[in-house]
């Protein structure tokens, strides 16, 4: 019997054993793992179709959605969960899901960080039996050898190495109630894992944990409310999993609609505002340059940091509400100047006369290259990128990367020039993105084999007022194909603006349906027509997630191409001329 023994850093204590499932690519648990079956549903991931149940999952880190912590909690509390997680580098989103299970529900799932070199050494042991015991990992070729799996003793108590002020200590002592006390305990544990030495005050929060992933997320929110939870800073809510006013009319089953709607109500009972949008940067409460905030929802985090110049980490679901209850966040990462510097320099080949699909495609591609590195993009100084372009770029970038932000030289506020974004230091890596490389990502996002389009899905992230105005202009005087449905998601505030401008009436004459409160990452049948085989979207984010979330093949293209498909019921599947290869993407 041969053994490999590795010592790492225990992010969450515990013991576990199972066969090793290894991949050298980060995984977003939201949209990438089914919270009820534990199947990997990210159809772009090398582990697609595999089950995590009872196995030791080894990935470099998480990526993508902040809701990954919620999916992991569902798996831990309701099964089937992995036996343990092994990471090459610390990941706040996945670690937080396991910490909530331990701190709030007294259930342990070990999370171990072993570094990149040891992580690479694990690859030959894929499929072998692996044991986690605190800081120790043991890979054993004989899977039936004896193993003791008694639970480890918990390390309860308010001990911390962080520097705390008087209010921090009062929160920790329970003087502001049990909910705030438990929230502070979680904030401190995460702050220590992140390497912070103290906390800072934040001015506002945006809660992503209001997305319904299953009974565990509602159980968590109701427990906080039972303990008397009340937010202490202005707090907005992300898109929830249903249109709260119309889910019955849309045909949503009560078994899903009722708890999903109730989850939003519980967070509002804690003092959060009824906003229900994944694009909080479109609200009147938009933070200012340099403002310290706590936002969850991956696209919102990236937009806040990159486009607005506000300061937030990529906060996991559940840590967002904990910080809203305490008003205190870890002083580290993108909250600090040094945590916002670019370490990856990306020179982009800018095409002649691109359409609006360029930006989400580029964001998707750069996210795959970046990993956890903050990139600085050059070559786009004369692109005249709009806020909608940057929104589309950021959402796709946040889907495939784990970084909290990006810089674009000459466009984003902290990158007036190359030297500013790099902080006067040489980048750790330099890359060039060519149109040929973007063409490969285009083909990856266009998974549909048939030219048929049964659904056109727009608004991921939620449409802005300018996007709805542009859509109405394209739809004016036309009508959707009888076999094709066009559905648009947006926030209530934007819907009201569009209605007042007459755009909603134009879209409804076309045959479009507008849905508020929820977004495409949470929508399934019957909004997605049960008989539909393919859909089309202009969102790089949804083009990535849809094959796994709703089991449909995808056409990806510009807004104009989406409207043309809605009118004809088909997509020509031609690569746009600006990519330099106007052939059908299946012809290579």
What does this protein structure show overall?
The chain is of the alpha/beta class and 588 residues long. It folds into 4 domains: 3-140, Phosphohistidine domain (Glucose Oxidase, domain 1), CATH 3.50.30; 166-335, Aconitase, domain 3; 341-443, no CATH class; 447-572, Aconitase, domain 3 (2-Layer Sandwich). The chain is 33% helix and 15% strand. It has 18 helices and 22 strands. Strands 1-8-7-3-4-5-6-2 form an 8-stranded mixed beta sheet. Helix 1 packs across helix 2 (92-105), helix 6 (215-226) packs parallel to helix 7 and helix 11 (387-400) packs across helix 17. The longest helix is centred in the first third of the chain and has 17 residues, at 178-194. The chain starts with a strand and ends in a 20-residue tail after the last helix.
Summarize the structure.
33% of the residues lie in helices and 15% in strands. With 588 residues, it is an alpha/beta fold.
Mind sketching the topology for me?
Elements: E1 3-7, E2 9-12, E3 15-22, E4 56-59, H1 68-78, E5 84-87, H2 92-105, E6 111-113, H3 116-122, E7 129-133, E8 136-140, H4 166-172, H5 178-194, E9 199-201, E10 205-207, H6 215-226, E11 235-237, H7 254-269, E12 294-295, H8 298-308, H9 319-326, E13 328-330, E14 344-348, H10 358-370, E15 375-378, H11 387-400, E16 407-408, H12 418-422, E17 429-433, H13 435-445, E18 455-458, H14 465-475, E19 485-490, H15 492-500, H16 503-510, E20 513-516, E21 534-537, H17 540-549, E22 553-556, H18 559-568
Parallel strand pairs: 3-4, 4-5, 5-6, 10-11, 10-12, 14-15, 14-17, 15-16, 18-19, 18-21, 19-20, 21-22
Antiparallel strand pairs: 1-8, 2-6, 3-7, 7-8, 9-13
């Amino acid at each position: 019997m041969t053994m490999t023994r590795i010592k790492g850093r225990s992010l969450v204590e515990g013991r576990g054993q199972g066969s090793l499932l290894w991949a050298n690519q980060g995984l977003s648990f939201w949209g990438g793992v089914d919270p009820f079956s534990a199947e990997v549903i990210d159809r772009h991931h090398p582990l697609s179709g595999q089950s995590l149940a009872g196995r030791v999952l080894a990935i470099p880190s998480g990526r993508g959605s902040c809701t990954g912590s919620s999916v992991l909690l569902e798996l831990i509390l309701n099964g089937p969960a992995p036996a343990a997680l092994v990471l090459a580098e610390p990941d706040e989103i996945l670690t937080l899901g396991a910490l909530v299970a331990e701190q709030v529900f007294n259930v342990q799932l070990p999370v171990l960080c072993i570094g990149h070199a040891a992580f690479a050494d694990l690859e030959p042991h894929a499929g072998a039996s692996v044991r986690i015991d605190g800081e120790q990992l043991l890979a054993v070729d004989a899977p039936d050898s004896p193993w003791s799996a008694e639970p480890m003793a918990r390390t309860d108590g308010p001990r911390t190495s962080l520097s705390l002020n008087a209010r921090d200590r009062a929160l920790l002592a329970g003087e502001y109630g049990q909910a705030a006390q438990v929230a502070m305990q979680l904030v401190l544990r995460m702050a220590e894992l992140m390497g912070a030495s103290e906390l800072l005050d934040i001015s506002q929060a945006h809660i992503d944990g209001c997305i319904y992933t299953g009974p565990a997320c509602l159980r968590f929110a109701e427990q906080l409310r039972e303990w008397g939870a009340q937010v202490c800073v202005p707090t907005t809510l992300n898109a929830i999993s249903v249109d709260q006013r119309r889910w019955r009319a849309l045909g949503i089953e009560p078994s899903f609609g009722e708890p999903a709607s109730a989850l939003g109500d519980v967070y509002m009972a804690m003092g959060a505002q009824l906003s229900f949008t994944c694009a909080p940067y479109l609200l009147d409460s938009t933070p200012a340059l340099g403002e310290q905030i706590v936002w969850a929802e991956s696209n919102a985090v990236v937009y806040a940091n990159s486009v607005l110049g506000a300061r937030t980490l990529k906060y996991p679901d559940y840590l967002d509400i904990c910080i809203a209850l305490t008003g205190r966040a870890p002083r580290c990462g993108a909250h600090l100047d040094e945590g916002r510097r670019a370490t990856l320099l990306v020179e982009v080949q800018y095409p002649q006369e691109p359409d609006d699909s360029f930006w989400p495609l580029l964001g998707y591609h750069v996210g795959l290259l970046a990993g956890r590195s903050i990139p600085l993009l050059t070559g786009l100084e004369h692109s005249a990128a709009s806020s909608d372009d940057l929104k589309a770029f950021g959402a796709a970038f946040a889907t495939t990367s784990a970084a909290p932000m990006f810089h674009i030289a000459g466009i984003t506020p902290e990158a007036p020039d190359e030297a500013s974004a790099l902080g006067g230091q040489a980048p750790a890596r330099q890359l060039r993105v060519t149109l040929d490389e973007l063409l490969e990502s285009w083909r990856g996002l266009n998974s549909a084999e048939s030219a048929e389009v049964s659904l056109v899905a727009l608004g991921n992230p939620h449409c802005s007022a300018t996007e709805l105005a542009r859509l109405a202009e394209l739809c004016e005087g036309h009508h959707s194909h009888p076999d094709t449905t066009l559905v648009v998601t947006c926030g209530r505030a934007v819907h009201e603006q569009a209605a007042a401008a007459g755009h909603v009436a134009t879209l409804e004459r076309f045959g479009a349906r507008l849905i508020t409160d929820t977004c495409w990452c949470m929508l399934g049948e019957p909004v997605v027509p049960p008989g539909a085989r393919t859909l089309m979207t202009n969102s790089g984010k949804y083009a990535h997630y849809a094959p796994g979330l709703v089991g449909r093949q995808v056409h990806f293209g510009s807004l104009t191409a989406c409207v043309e498909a809605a009118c004809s019921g088909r997509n020509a599947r031609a690569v746009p001329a600006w990519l330099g290869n106007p052939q059908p993407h299946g012809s290579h």
